[in-house]
Each structure stands twice: as structure tokens, then as C-alpha cells.
Design goal:
Length: 318
């Protein structure tokens, strides 16, 4: 009778790491074969790195009013007559370096856009799972609230929330809480799209055999929703979140341009465009042009990544 030889650690199969799985996945192959996605990812990474490293690479802190010098105001870009070093893109009417303001403003716009998408995503996922799994009156209440929000213009809801928050807060807290207020104002009308998408997928998954089997063995509903239904709903949510990231940045810029967003002493890209628009016809074109270009680059790169992700995760195109 032959004796069985025990397996040693060296003979045991080695599980590939997550990085190896990513490199061998269809998503990574699709990304490498998509030049526009690579270009957009590099562009977005460059914008994000320069924005978050702004204190190290900019000649001035545009949020520090003591660092602004009025005798250095209205300096044109470095390649035009009258341009001065280190103000590569010129200065505004307060002596604020445009390059520094654009990089610092990009950081605020990226943070507000990302945080608002994450907040709307969390609320939409939770409410969509609950509505699709339980159905009944719970589903009706959640969806009717969503219908009410969809019946109102997005920008009107955001302006209403910011106006109520500004009127309720003391004067000293308005500027301090300007960013959190904007995040909530953008997220409140945005969760409906995620909730409706997750609800539709959850209603389909809740009728399948594996969910019915989990109910028979008395698995808790929250565990079924999180560990069984949610993973099958993530594909359309990932695409929607990526595309809505660009819309959230545009929404923040719109609110700031209308004067209900970030204050002038903490300018985002929208605030910079609003300030520069006042001097567009007086010859100080650089105050509004460069923040506008930066905003266009950010939104363009995010939308290009979203378009690639939508095509890559679409099984009909494989």
C-alpha cells in the first residue's frame, strides 16, 4: 500500500495577488488598448497631482490675503509685454497669481466634486437596495421622494439648499462651512439616479434562486443586500459615478459662478471664472481664460474616462 506524500508549502498553489489579477483582467487590457482613455487618465492624474502639490510648486498662497501685493496686480502672462517672473500666467486685480489660484482652485473643485459624488452614491445605494429588496410601501415612499426631486431643476434645488444654509448659519461660519454646504447641495438631488439604477437591479436579483435560498436559511436582509445583491449592481453604478463626477465639478463651478458657492477668499474654479468675467472686456483676459481652460480639461478627462468605462463594462461590446 503506497503512502501518501504530504504537500509542502512550496508545492501549494500560489494565489495571484490583486495587482496580478488587475494586470490580467479584461478591464486593464481594454484600458491599454484605448488611447483616449490613457490620455484622459494621464491628464487627470497630472491635474490632480499639480492641484494637491500646489503649496510646493506655486510661488504664492492665493488664500493668504497678507501675501497679496497690490503693486503686482494686473500683470499679464510671462510671454506678453509687461510679464514678470514668477507670475507665469499673470495676476488679477488684487495681485493674486493666476497659476497659484488655478491650482488651489482645482484642488477645491476636485474635493467638492469627489465628496459630493461619494455622498450621493452612499445614499443612493442604501435607498436603492432597500427599495428594491423590500418593495411595497417602502419602495413607493423612496421613489416618490425621488420623483419630487427629479421634477425640480437640479440647480434650483442646490441654490435653495445653499440659501437656506447661509441664512441659518452665523456670519462667521458661512465661509468656513461653504465647502460642506456645497457638497450637500450637489449630493441631495444626485442620489436619485443611483437609487433608481440600484433599485432596478436589486428587484431582478431579489427574485433569483440564490437570494431565495439565502432567505430560506434565514440570512439577515442586510447581509443579503450587501454580500449578494450589491456586487451584481456595481457595474452601472461605477459608470454613472464616473460621469457624475464631471457633472458635480461643473455644478460646483456653476454655483460659485452664480455667487452662492465658494467665497472670494477661498476661490474655486467657478469663483475665479466669476471674478475674471467682470474684467473680460477691460483687456484682462487671462483672469478668466486660464481657470476656464483648467475646468474644461478636468471635465473633459473625466468624461473620456467615463465613456471608456461604459464601453469596457458593456458585455454587448465584448
Amino acid at each position: 500500500m503506497q503512502k501518501s506524500i504530504p504537500l509542502t508549502t512550496a508545492d501549494a498553489p500560489v494565489r495571484p495577488s490583486r495587482l496580478t489579477k488587475l494586470r490580467e483582467s479584461d478591464l486593464w487590457y481594454s484600458f491599454r488598448a484605448h488611447p483616449s482613455a490613457i490620455f484622459a487618465a494621464v491628464l487627470l492624474l497630472l491635474v490632480a497631482l499639480t492641484a494637491f502639490l500646489a503649496p510646493l510648486i506655486t510661488p504664492q498662497n492665493p488664500y493668504d490675503l497678507a501675501a497679496l501685493e497690490l503693486w503686482n496686480s494686473e500683470i499679464p502672462p510671462i510671454w506678453e509685454a509687461g510679464g514678470q517672473w514668477p507670475y507665469l500666467l499673470g495676476t488679477d486685480t488684487q495681485g493674486r497669481d493666476i497659476l497659484s489660484a488655478v491650482l488651489y482652485g482645482s484642488r477645491i473643485s476636485l474635493i467638492i466634486g469627489f465628496a459630493s459624488v461619494m455622498l450621493a452614491l452612499a445614499v443612493g445605494l442604501a435607498l436603492g437596495l432597500v427599495a428594491g429588496y423590500f418593495g411595497g410601501w417602502i419602495d413607493n415612499v423612496i421613489m416618490r421622494v425621488g420623483d419630487v426631486l427629479l421634477s425640480m431643476p437640479f440647480i434650483l434645488i442646490a441654490i435653495l439648499i445653499t440659501a437656506i444654509a447661509s441664512a441659518s448659519l452665523p456670519t462667521g461660519l458661512k465661509d468656513v462651512l461653504a465647502a460642506p454646504i456645497l457638497i450637500v447641495a450637489i449630493a441631495v438631488p444626485s442620489w436619485v439616479q443611483y437609487a433608481r439604477t440600484v433599485r432596478a437591479s436589486a428587484m431582478v436579483e431579489a427574485k433569483k434562486e440564490y437570494v431565495q435560498a439565502a432567505k430560506l436559511i434565514r440570512v439577515k436582509p442586510w447581509r443579503i443586500m450587501l454580500h449578494h445583491i450589491l456586487p451584481n449592481c456595481l457595474t452601472p453604478i461605477m459608470v454613472a459615478a464616473t460621469l457624475n463626477f464631471g457633472l458635480a465639478i461643473l455644478s460646483e463651478a456653476t454655483l460659485s459662478f452664480l455667487g452662492v458657492g465658494m467665497p472670494p477668499d477661498q476661490p474655486s474654479l467657478g469663483t475665479l471664472i466669476r471674478i475674471g468675467n467682470q474684467y473680460l472686456f477691460s483687456g484682462l483676459w487671462w483672469i478668466v481664460v486660464f481657470p476656464s481652460i483648467q475646468l474644461c480639461l478636468i471635465v473633459l478627462s473625466v468624461n473620456m474616462i467615463g465613456d471608456w468605462l461604459r464601453d469596457a463594462l458593456n458585455p454587448k461590446l465584448r
